[in-house]
Amino acid sequence: MSRESQHGKWTLSSSDDEDEDPSAQTTEVSRERVEKTRGVARSNQVNREKFGAGVTTSSAKRKKESEDTGWALSSSDDDCENSSFADHRKARNPSPKRTKPERARPASPHGASYYKEEPADVFDAGFLPADGAFRFYLNRVTGIEKKFNTGALHIKGSVIQKSFNYCFDISWMVQQYPPEFRDKPVMIVHGEKRESKARLIQQAQPYTHIRFCQAKLDIAFGTHHTKMMLLWYEEGFRVVILTSNLIPADWYQKTQGLWLSPLYPKLPEGSPFLAGESPTNFKSDLLDYLRSYRAPELEEWIQRIGEHDLSQTRVYLVGSTPGRFLGSDMEKWGHLRLRKLLSENTQRVQNEEAWPVVAQFSSIGSMGVDKTKWLAAEFQHTLTTLGKGKKVSTSPEIPMYLVYPSVENVRTSLEGYPAGGSLPYSIQTAQRQLWLHSYFHYWSAEVTGRSHAMPHIKTYMRTSPDFAELSWFLVTSANLSKAAWGALEKNNTQMMVRSYELGVLFLPSAFVSDMKTFKVQKNPFPATGSSASFPVPFDLPPQPYRNKDQPWIWNIPYTQAPDTHGNVWVPS
């Protein structure tokens, strides 16, 4: 079967759909390897090739994404290794391994002028923006209007002490510390194995203050995709949960999000271990998440967190951890965890069937042969849960808007086609679920000045029919995949989750006890921290793909129209 767009034609095989597609289950891994296989951006002038790796982020990314310093991380599904890309028509000859060069910024496919030079204060993180109620921030982006970076955060200048992530560039990470803190102890929690693990450890050889903890990945095709930092200070500690990897590619021209906790003070000597709990049970849930790693290296951190007061936390933790879960454990992780929180802590609204679900992500796994296999069944059941009581009828079906960049979004982005290296939706997965594409809406973020900064952020929400209110909002590392969110098995008596993921859920009742909804903030920038309305990072309502739009698929060529840097895309 063929599909055609203004950017060319691509052919889909007629193979039967599979409910579980191993290649699709690893879409996030592939997407993070995308930068590794970023494809050659070939100039359409003369027949000359340009280096098209752009910001390379891939397999390393799939394992680690981020940490300390209190803010920002990197894009979730790219390989962290820099790699050059040869024209796919050329014979692939083995070449000797090369040592990864250390750079202050990632290699650019467009030359030294790829990144706009900004004033030094653009990346100055020596201060925090006004302490808004939600503590939800976007990253700073180069090449956009200055006002849209007011109140946004960057990693530079932060101190990273414990970092959970998918992808790391250790030399770059260390350079983000103030010089006087570059020898402070750091622990990196990762999911790398074999050769990629050896490369990660080799990166850290010059830095004797860095230690590692390997996350157990016992189920095939799972990844350590969590992006979290634990930051320790003399006065206490912070938790940062974000969508960026600890690689430079994720911090400059992508849209990323993070939640920055309050500074948690130490409890009085002799306090019970679970003293200092929040109304959202955040402390216990964070400790349970850390225990799920079953790692002796984390015991010290578990004890230290227990000694602190987390009572000011107003968000709920929503995590995934690999395993097959039964009974009440099914509701501890993945989308059933989200369902439980929505059932227990939200209230029903009038005309509920008309309140749409909006899901925005940067990678897509296998959904099955049709929508009833997972998306419009168990997952939609979770996303449409509001309060206790009778489940809302799905006839008429509750609207679901899926926001994922189109080819045109990527082509006209700040990075051009290389931005697609962090959007690893593969042709192998896409050809098995053409039904899914009717749900797609393109990326537009005029409200935050980030329409051309491709999203690596992942957000889920329930909005009013006029898109002026939210019944809840979630920012997370979890993309649209069963590996990330889990899937029911054995006649719905077992929950299987493949990957580690982490996010925070914002519920109105956690901020004001009798509040049912948040108002959507109309002008999030310049951020002042004083608004009581919620800053959604992209435009509402989402707009459906236009006639010739196609979803970005990273492993097929785009040669008929050049990107913003004059390149085309030819994956190797």
UniProtKB/TrEMBL annotation:
<dbReference type="GO" id="GO:0003690">
    <property type="term" value="F:double-stranded DNA binding"/>
</dbReference>
<dbReference type="GO" id="GO:0005737">
    <property type="term" value="C:cytoplasm"/>
</dbReference>
<feature type="compositionally biased region" description="Basic residues">
    <location>
        <begin position="89"/>
        <end position="98"/>
    </location>
</feature>
<comment type="function">
    <text>DNA repair enzyme that can remove a variety of covalent adducts from DNA through hydrolysis of a 3'-phosphodiester bond, giving rise to DNA with a free 3' phosphate. Catalyzes the hydrolysis of dead-end complexes between DNA and the topoisomerase I active site tyrosine residue. Hydrolyzes 3'-phosphoglycolates on protruding 3' ends on DNA double-strand breaks due to DNA damage by radiation and free radicals. Acts on blunt-ended double-strand DNA breaks and on single-stranded DNA.</text>
</comment>
<dbReference type="GO" id="GO:0003697">
    <property type="term" value="F:single-stranded DNA binding"/>
</dbReference>
<dbReference type="GO" id="GO:0005634">
    <property type="term" value="C:nucleus"/>
</dbReference>
<comment type="similarity">
    <text>Belongs to the tyrosyl-DNA phosphodiesterase family.</text>
</comment>
<feature type="compositionally biased region" description="Basic and acidic residues">
    <location>
        <begin position="29"/>
        <end position="38"/>
    </location>
</feature>
<feature type="region of interest" description="Disordered">
    <location>
        <begin position="1"/>
        <end position="113"/>
    </location>
</feature>
<keyword id="KW-0963">Cytoplasm</keyword>
<comment type="subunit">
    <text>Monomer.</text>
</comment>
<feature type="active site" description="Proton donor/acceptor">
    <location>
        <position position="456"/>
    </location>
</feature>
<feature type="binding site">
    <location>
        <position position="458"/>
    </location>
    <ligand>
        <name>substrate</name>
    </ligand>
</feature>
<dbReference type="InterPro" id="IPR010347">
    <property type="entry name" value="Tdp1"/>
</dbReference>
<feature type="site" description="Interaction with DNA">
    <location>
        <position position="481"/>
    </location>
</feature>
<protein>
    <recommendedName>
        <fullName>Tyrosyl-DNA phosphodiesterase 1</fullName>
    </recommendedName>
</protein>
<dbReference type="GO" id="GO:0004527">
    <property type="term" value="F:exonuclease activity"/>
</dbReference>
<keyword id="KW-0234">DNA repair</keyword>
<dbReference type="Pfam" id="PF06087">
    <property type="entry name" value="Tyr-DNA_phospho"/>
</dbReference>
<keyword id="KW-0227">DNA damage</keyword>
<feature type="binding site">
    <location>
        <position position="227"/>
    </location>
    <ligand>
        <name>substrate</name>
    </ligand>
</feature>
<keyword id="KW-0269">Exonuclease</keyword>
<keyword id="KW-0677">Repeat</keyword>
<keyword id="KW-0378">Hydrolase</keyword>
<feature type="active site" description="Nucleophile">
    <location>
        <position position="225"/>
    </location>
</feature>
<dbReference type="GO" id="GO:0000012">
    <property type="term" value="P:single strand break repair"/>
</dbReference>
<dbReference type="GO" id="GO:0017005">
    <property type="term" value="F:3'-tyrosyl-DNA phosphodiesterase activity"/>
</dbReference>
<keyword id="KW-0597">Phosphoprotein</keyword>
<keyword id="KW-0539">Nucleus</keyword>
<keyword id="KW-0540">Nuclease</keyword>
